[in-house]
Structure formats: structure tokens, C-alpha cells
TrEMBL record:
Stated name of the protein: Voltage-gated potassium channel
PROSITE patterns in the cross-refs: RCK_N
Alphabetized UniProt keyword annotations: Ion channel, Ion transport, Membrane, Transmembrane, Transmembrane helix, Transport
Residues annotated as domain RCK N-terminal: 114-239
Pfam families in UniProt: Ion_trans_2, TrkA_N
Gene3D superfamilies assigned: 1.10.287.70, NAD(P)-binding Rossmann-like Domain
Location relative to the cell: Cell membrane
Biological source species: Gracilibacillus ureilyticus
Amino acid sequence: MIWNRCIQFYFHLPIFLRLILSVTLIMLLFGFIIHLIEPSHFPTLFDGVWWAFVTGSTVGYGDYVPLSTLGKAVGIFLILAGGGLVTFYMATISAGTIKHEKDLSDGKIAYRGKNHIIIVGWNERTRQLTEMMRNRQINQDIVLIDHTMRNISYKDHHIHFIHGNPTADDVLQKAKIKDATHAIITADPSFKENEADRQTILNIISAKGNNPELIIVAEILTDIQQKNAERAGANLIIRSNDFMSSLFFQTIFQASNHATDIIAKTLEQQQFCTTPIDPDMAGQNFHACAVKLLDNNKWLIGIMRADEIMIHPDFKLILEEKDMLIYLQPF
């Protein structure tokens, strides 16, 4: 009974553990045998085990050599049995390492960290986001969920890729969504706008269902689906089409021919930031706080108060202790 349990336990071990255990047992066995056969040349059990490992791995230092015919026969059996097993062990490790790297690139390996950011959908916007995080040396891990890509190069993007449908629970569990802090859900470019928004809403529902505390930033393309995305649980909605429409209008109808260049250069050279208000600024008006931030090369453009965002409020507006400042800052 005990022997059967030991055999079952052995065959339930991972292949790497089984191989290293087998190699160790064989080397211990041959080391013990050679110690018994030639105790004068192998005075201790460790000497015999050392010879077995050196001989079985075909290194052959020559510091311990069997002299008797029986000892040499044991050496032959060791080379045939142990040498082949060690070679197979090394080949298995190499093949397993290559397979693991391929599975990582193919998005088959579950993420094992926590406090990470999940990105749903790989496109130019999310690619630039990962590049910005890497360039600013932000150490927070990124887990990408995408069903259209077959693999991704980790040398180029430094993210953990999960291949699959972002509405499937098993895929979200692979991404450890319960331990994530934020999720960025982008519009799927392979769908039409209405279909892309419906898919985004399904992704929001799935993410919130697995982690109600998750902060979700979602991209919505049509106005009619914005409320539905908020009802689904999105904390912040980004309307990329609104910005592009405004930019097109400025390009065609604005009197200045350089309006588009001005907007584009502003976006390229500045980044949006938010920060809690300094205690000494509470009680002062918006204008006074804006002047103080300008001294630090920051352009104050608005505040967040509770759930309300105020862009370019009245200069006489008095700021409160719980306000968040919204400003532009050079990269």
C-alpha cells in the first residue's frame, strides 16, 4: 500500500522534479555501490557519490577511478544509465524553458503578480500608453488582454500578455483581475462603432463582476452608449470621437491655419496631471493657485471637486481642502 502511494506520488510530480529526483537517486545508488566494492579508493560515501555525479555527467575529472574489474563494470553501467538520464534531464529543461517562453509570447501563461493595470485591446493608443509608462520608468506591471493577437514580443513591450476573450471569467482570472488596481478598456477597431461600444460595455460588466473595486477607464465612441457604460460600472468615460471631431473642425474652419499644429504640439509636449491641493492653497482663489503653479512650470486648467470636473472655472472661485488640481506639465 505504501509502495503504491509512493509510486503514485512520484508520477504526480512535475517532470522536472521527477527527473532531478531520479538522477539524484541513481547517483546515490552508484556512489554507495562503488564505495562498497572499492572502499580503499572510495573511503567515504561522499567520495563515491562525487565520482558517480562526475562520471554520470560525462565530465570525468579523473580524481577518483575504479581499479577493479567489478568497479569498472559498475562505471560502465553508470555511464549507460546515469549519462543518458542526465542528458535527457538537460534536454528536458532546455525544451521546457523554450516552451515556457513561447507560451508567454502566445498569452497562455497566467499572471502571478498583484496591484497591476489591465489593458483590454491592443492598438496604437495602448501601445503608446505602454511606451509612455516605460519611458517614465513607471514600475507598475501591465497585463494585456486581447483576442486578435496571436503573440507579442516581450522585448519590445515589457507587458504580460493574456490571449482570449475579455468577457470570459477564465481569461480574467488568468489576468488576476481581483488583484488589479485599474483597467483600461479600449474600443475594438475590428467592430463598427455601435458594435464596438456594446463590446466595451460587456467588457466593463465582466470586469466589474469579477472585481467590484476595480477602477475602470473605458473608451466609448458613440454618445448614445455613454450612459450605458456608466451604468455598467465605468469610473471614467473617454470620448475620443469628440476630440477628433473638434480637431477636424479647427483644421477646416478656424481662421488660423496653424490651429491644428498648435493643438498637436501642445498634446505632444504636455501631459495631463492631477494632484491633491496643497494645504496652503486651500481658501485661496483659482487665480492665485494658478500663478503659484506657473512658478513651477505647471499650467492649472481646472479642478475636481467630489464627482464634478471644472475646466477653467471663474478666477474668483475659492478652492477647498478636498479639491484635486488638474494641470498641464511638460514631458
